[in-house]
Design brief:
Blueprint: H1 3-17, E1 45-46, E2 49-51, E3 84-93, E4 98-108, E5 115-121, H2 133-141, E6 158-166, E7 169-170, E8 172-175, E9 188-197, E10 202-212, E11 221-223, E12 226-229, E13 235-236, E14 238-240, E15 251-253, E16 268-277, E17 281-284, E18 287-288, E19 293-295, E20 298-308, E21 313-316, E22 323-327, E23 335-340, H3 346-366, E24 374-378, E25 390-392, E26 395-397, H4 409-430, H5 443-456, E27 461-462, H6 466-470, E28 476-477, H7 479-486, H8 508-525, H9 527-541, H10 548-559, H11 562-573, E29 581-590, E30 596-600, E31 603-607, H12 609-626, E32 634-647, E33 654-660, E34 665-670, E35 676-685, E36 687-692, E37 708-710, H13 716-738
Helix pairs in contact: 1-4, 3-4, 4-5, 5-8, 7-8, 8-9, 8-11, 9-10, 10-11
């Protein structure tokens, strides 16, 4: 999901970096204008089991210790507490771009109540017409999706239920609208079971279906012979129990397919047979079970993967010879890596392989060992960018570029999207947070961890094209600086804990503002404490669907800095707090003798203006004679320095550094709820500068330009930007002269 968003942000950054005025553009934020339709609705209820609130967001109450079966110790028979088992025979028709499926779904009722109806997602129906929830939101909110590829005549997709039975008995079904979307949305279906499922029991559903793939749109589809088959089968929703993600009674969590949301499902086992023409190369989630079996000019590929919550695959007859490699690390089995790519994208394939191995090492070391035995990477062809930059368990797609020269944006984008999509394998995949209701736990935390990895590698972002690099223009930016620049800071509209689809500014801030917030929190609690806390979060909640409150509690407990963690979550996750502290006034004046009376040797003597001036002049001359090499800003009289700070946002702990002409300094703390503060000192030397947040702990601050002042004009910055602009203009003139 990262590629188009990052390219837009980097393009803006590259442009401003080449213009002298960019130093003054810090307060310009990338905000998306959108219109949210406010509706007053009640949660959908069916029988005795309610459905999740349509507008549910970040959970505030921690989950129970035994939620989702309790922490996984590694001694269990399976990595996860498996709830579902999917057995699917799927046949691809690459001409009609359809998948015919026969599915055997086994589902276990974890609750202590009888279940008479179950709910399933039919995600592909989001693309059946402009009347789905997905496309209706796109119109109402005036938002495109990523590259905003339009769907033309003959390019729609859908999933058709042809037969549903339970134990041989026909199952009646109907479309429902848990989020009160349009009646024409068909992305959620209810099965009314002939035989209820008793508490703790399991049932088997046999489902015949036909999926018509759309032209690549929103993470799935085809272009030419290329097929990314994702969200392609009937997928059962999650029955949450009391104590899990804030639930107080059993409830079905099964949202419609919104334009800005992704997915959430139970862990289970997938046993999938994919039949495609034998000249098609197939790749998929999980482990291939032996050599494909040939029949009638087709090959059937058998994949199995346990302890995942989704399954995706690809098929293409233009795929070059796959790149294969392995990776090994402490605590992990040997991982077989496969990169699938069209011939023109060989450069991206090579780059992605290296980035994937680096990611395996970093995430395994900083969070926990990678638990699976395979990793499949898909590079989409030209005109299939909507299939790129998407994650599925043990399987993800990246951005395709024909060239990935060192020091260029294309190289960086291929690397970063690989790191980002691999990282989803942890936050979306293994931790398995609810991406619809709590996208911060996946997109936001993953973005943060990605940039930690770049920072550890000391890897800046190169924003040059091949042409710019050839003519010597090679601007770079640090990762967290870019995240800050792209974050809405002046007027953030949505709490980071808001769900993915009820957002005024779109889902973009979930990535960049969360990464910036977590970076700021790390500055407060310490890098080592933060990493220990995230390791514990992974250990405690892997394969268990943690909530925002579970993250908050883990961070507070492990860092030992509950007050800091709870303040940040209260301000930024559960609310929308602007951070805006600034230096309002700064002065440093000599403390000189004043007119008036004073007592000298028991007598009162009056000093008039003339007498005062004579005394000042005499003391200055005497001091200069005695101190011929004194520094500027020192003298016979002390200086009173005063700093006034203003706060126009939420309180954050601040440090103020004042430097003096004699090389000394004063450091003070401002850590209270007040809207302003004033600090003053009387010292032998004049103040030179004052800086708020000298360690740059608060990247969420609206502007860093008002964090510092000097008493003497400093033109270094303007000279630097003018020099850069002059150099750029000189290069352009040289090019024109040589054309």
């Amino acid at each position: 999901m990262a590629a188009n968003r990052l390219r837009s942000a980097l393009s803006i950054f590259a442009l401003t970096a080449l213009v002298a005025a960019s130093a003054y553009h810090e307060q310009i934020m990338a905000q998306v204008s959108a219109v949210t339709i406010n509706k007053i609705e009640q949660p959908f209820t069916e029988g005795d089991i309610a459905l999740a609130d349509p507008h549910a967001g970040a959970v505030t109450v921690p989950s129970a210790p035994d939620a989702w079966g309790g922490p996984r110790t590694g001694n269990e028979a399976t990595l996860s507490d498996r709830v579902v088992n999917y057995e699917i025979d799927a046949t691809l028709d690459p001409v009609r771009h359809t998948v015919e499926g026969k599915q055997k779904l086994t589902w276990r009722n974890r609750s202590n109540v009888e279940v008479r109806s179950v709910y399933l997602h039919l995600y592909m129906n989001a693309f059946e017409s402009s009347n789905s929830t997905f496309f209706t939101e796109a119109r109402h909110n005036q938002m495109g999706f990523r590259s905003d590829v339009g769907t033309k005549e003959g390019e729609w997709g859908h999933i058709e239920l042809r037969k549903v039975s339970q134990g041989g008995a026909k199952v009646s079904w109907s479309f429902v609208h848990p989020d009160n979307g349009p009646e024409t949305d068909h992305t959620v279906v209810r099965f009314d079971l002939p035989v209820p499922v008793a508490a703790g029991a399991s049932t088997v559903l046999d489902i015949d279906f036909l999926t018509q793939l759309p032209r690549v749109v929103a993470r799935t589809g085809y272009f030419g012979s290329f097929h990314l088959v994702a969200q392609w089968f009937p997928k059962i929703g999650v029955l949450e129990l009391p104590g899990e993600r804030g639930a107080t009674a059993p409830r079905w969590n099964v949202h419609e397919h919104h334009q800005q949301s992704e997915f959430y499902a139970d862990f289970g086992n997938y046993d999938i047979r994919i039949t495609a023409p034998k000249d098609y190369t197939v790749g998929a989630t999980g482990e291939l079970q032996g050599a494909p079996v040939e029949k009638d000019g087709k090959l059937t590929h058998h994949y199995v993967q346990g302890d995942v919550h989704d399954f995706a695959w690809t098929a293409d007859n233009r795929t070059a010879k796959p790149i294969k490699d392995t990776w090994s690390g402490p605590g992990s089995a040997q991982v077989a890596i496969t990169v699938l790519y069209p011939p023109e994208m060989k450069a991206s394939a090579d780059t992605a392989l290296v980035a994937a191995k680096d990611s395996l090492a970093y995430f395994s070391r900083t969070l926990g060992p990678y638990p699976y035995k395979t990793l499949t990477i898909v590079v989409p062809p030209h005109n299939a960018a909507e299939a790129g930059g998407m994650e599925y368990p043990t399987f993800f797609t990246v951005e395709g570029n024909t060239h990935t020269d060192e020091g260029t944006l294309d190289k960086y984008m291929t690397e970063f999207v690989t790191i980002h999509e691999f990282g989803h394998g942890y936050f979306y995949g293994i931790l398995a947070s609810n991406e619809q209701e709590e996208p911060m736990l996946d997109e936001g935390l993953n973005e943060y961890w990605n940039h930690r990895m770049l920072r550890e590698r000391k890897q800046d972002i190169h924003v040059s094209t091949r042409f710019m690099k050839a003519i010597g223009i090679t601007p770079t930016v640090k990762g967290f600086d870019l995240e800050r620049t792209a974050s809405p800071r002046e007027e953030p509209a949505d709490p980071l804990g808001q769900n993915a689809y009820d957002r005024l500014q779109g889902v973009g801030p979930v990535y960049v503002r969360t990464a910036t917030m977590m970076r700021d929190l790390e500055e407060r609690v310490g890098k080592e404490n933060m990493e220990r806390a995230f390791k514990e979060y992974y250990r405690r909640w892997k394969f268990r669907h943690p909530s925002t409150a579970d993250l908050r509690e883990t961070l507070a407990e492990v860092t030992g800095q509950r007050e800091a963690v709870e303040q940040v979550f209260a301000q930024q996750v559960y609310a929308t707090g602007k951070v805006d502290d600034r230096v309002d006034r700064f002065s440093s004046e000599e403390v000189l003798p004043q007119v008036g009376t004073e007592q000298v040797q028991g007598k009162w003597v009056e000093l008039n203006k003339e007498a005062v001036e004579k005394r000042i002049d005499a003391e200055r001359k005497a001091w200069e004679k005695a101190n011929p090499k004194a520094k500027e800003g020192t003298g016979p009289f002390p200086f009173r320095t005063s700093v006034t700070l203003r706060r126009r946002g939420v309180p954050v702990p601040q440090t103020i550094l004042v430097k003096f002409a004699d090389g000394t300094s004063e450091t003070v703390k401002w850590d209270n709820q007040e809207r302003w503060a004033r600090f003053s000192w009387v010292r032998p030397a004049k103040a030179v500068s004052v800086e708020l947040d000298p360690q740059r702990m608060h990247y969420l601050d609206v502007s860093k330009l008002d964090d510092s002042r000097t008493l003497k004009a400093n033109s270094d910055a303007s000279r630097r930007w003018t020099g850069d602009l002059s150099a750029f203009v000189s290069i352009l003139l040289s090019l024109i002269a040589n054309v």
